[in-house]
Amino acid sequence: MNDTDKNRIIELIKAGEKLPKEYIYKLFADEEDVFLFWNGRKEDVTNVALPFHSIEHIDEPRKETSQTLELFDTRGRQLKGWTNKLIWGDNKLILSSLANGPIRDEIEKEGGLKLIYIDPPFAVGADFGFTIEINGETAEKKQSIIEEIAYRDTWGKGISSYLSMMYERLKLMHNLLADDGSMFLHCDWRISSYLRIILDDIFGSKNFRNEIIWIYTGPSAPNQRQFSRKHDNILWYTKSDMWIFNVDDVRIPYDETTAGKFESEGTGFGGKPADLSKGKIPEDWWYLPVVSRIRPEILGYPTQKPEKLLERIIKASSNEGDLIADFFCGSGTTAAVAEKLGRKWIAADLGRFAIHTTRKRLIGVQRELQAAGKNFRAFEILNLGKYERQFFMDDLSNGQRKAKEELYVELILEAYKAKRISGHSMLHGQKAGRFVHVGPLDVPVTQSRLVDIFEECRKNLYTQVDVLGFEFEMGLTPQFIQELKEKGVSITLKYIPKDVFDKRAVEKGQVKFFDVAYLNTKEKINGKSITIELTDFVTHYTQDDIEELQQSMRAGSKVVIEDGQIIKVEKDKNGIITKTILTKDWHDWIDYWAIDFNYEDKKEIIKIKNESGEIEEHWTGNYLFENEWQSFRTKKNPTLEFTSIAYEYKKAGKYKVMVKVVDILGIDTSKIIEVHIK
């Protein structure tokens, strides 16, 4: 760089103007032959270590026949060691917490991550929405605002924002990989060239092994003006020049022409005798059908990949007992195949529906393995819970406690479109004649808190209040809320969505709060035996506005979700509108339900690294939900059982039973039942 260039750069910086790209390249010309630069590139990565909440533990799948749990064949049931992990949340925070937190030690004890396969989102639209079938019609579950924001942050500024998103996450994954580990990144023609350059930058071009082309067939678009795009790209990189490649586990048969030639000539390559029994090493192009052509695998997940594809990758680049991971897990194909092949796994996704789909799929795999007398491992569902919320608030308030508390209340009220009020101890705002209480950031709204709100409302002759919370105590029942209403104060409980932490969503008024759902059960006790019947489920979930839709829609039909109903709206050519409620019964809302017959049997313990680097264990005050019985819908079997098997307690006493319901939108609702066994 000459003196003229240097002086010009100084002038531009002093004037606060942007540097032309040619100057940016010249500044780094001496560092590398090729400098990888895009708008927004940052070298540093997130290094926060947030504790993980364990929200569900699934150790032993139920039998299909009705019998007590004590009669289960426990062969293969895991009693100690690594527990597989299904994690819901932002994978940047998940990766950072795995890399820097206590679970890193667990990962290293397992030999480190030997294989990471990821299939990150392509630039193809809303990646987190999904469709549900309800009484012969299809409804769309739109992506939540937090998912929409993730998509916007990924593609908002075009390719540069996507590269920034991927660069940080790939650096964290590289950090987690074992020295002999492999990374397989699945992509397509839109982004493969960009990702190849980024992977060269992080892993080093010398550690590039293959670009695998997965080819498949399918219908072509009418009137297209290019050849049909019928392949994906899988980029394989290794951490170092040591890597696992189990060539004999992935050999494929020679084709008939080659085999016939070898047999007739009696020789193989190089004139040596041919051993055709082993098969050959596959080429770097793989012809495998897409999931839509494999009926037993279809889950209705738009980006689902075939198990044969993951089977080849996992067999080639890991061994039995190795730990592998997928941080964009989608429908859970990587985890399902890993379980079947005797590997340990970590799977993560931002989408609630992805986590729920994977949970059902893995329970199904556990059942299959147990029925076949094969080993299976437990898995737990984790999230960052209140620690993720605290992280967001610390970021917004620069860590100042008083500022954080005030900012938090103002943030929630703004998102709820409520006006701030003062002079009250339990009431924070007012909206359309109703008072508003903002529940705490890091603990559930309790029954005692509701009593305090009720007393303040009754003292001031207020009759209506909305209570907003991230979590609510399990014991809050419709009966308790009804009792408060009969005493003069109507209280409505509403969930605060994670979307409130995005300022853009709040400013645009996109954040939607929805009423807490309720479930009812009936318990039947016979001696020391108990059965639980699910008797009712009430939700007020809303994602659409029927009135707005009716004014804007043209002739045709649309399925909407409003106030706990899924409704088909039809408009004929004369503008006549008819509505048909598709959710005819509460049963239609249930996709999955599960029971922990002794909920307070196991405390939820989180591990935190202190300032000196030592790991401390803390009880959260909550208990671990151990999934002891479950019934759920699948494509093959859409029917549900609404009465559990008989569970036998070993001794008399008082117990708490927890029932968890996941509705067809993937949203959890729980209830605790107190039972007395004599």
Automatic annotation (TrEMBL):
Transmembrane portions of the chain: none
Source domain of life: Bacteria
EC number: 2.1.1.72
Keywords: Methyltransferase, S-adenosyl-L-methionine, Transferase
One Gene Ontology term of the molecular function aspect: site-specific DNA-methyltransferase (adenine-specific) activity
Keyword Transferase: yes
Catalysis performed (reactions): a 2'-deoxyadenosine in DNA + S-adenosyl-L-methionine = an N(6)-methyl-2'-deoxyadenosine in DNA + S-adenosyl-L-homocysteine + H(+)
Pfam families per record: N6_N4_Mtase (PF01555)
Protein name per Swiss-Prot or TrEMBL: site-specific DNA-methyltransferase (adenine-specific)
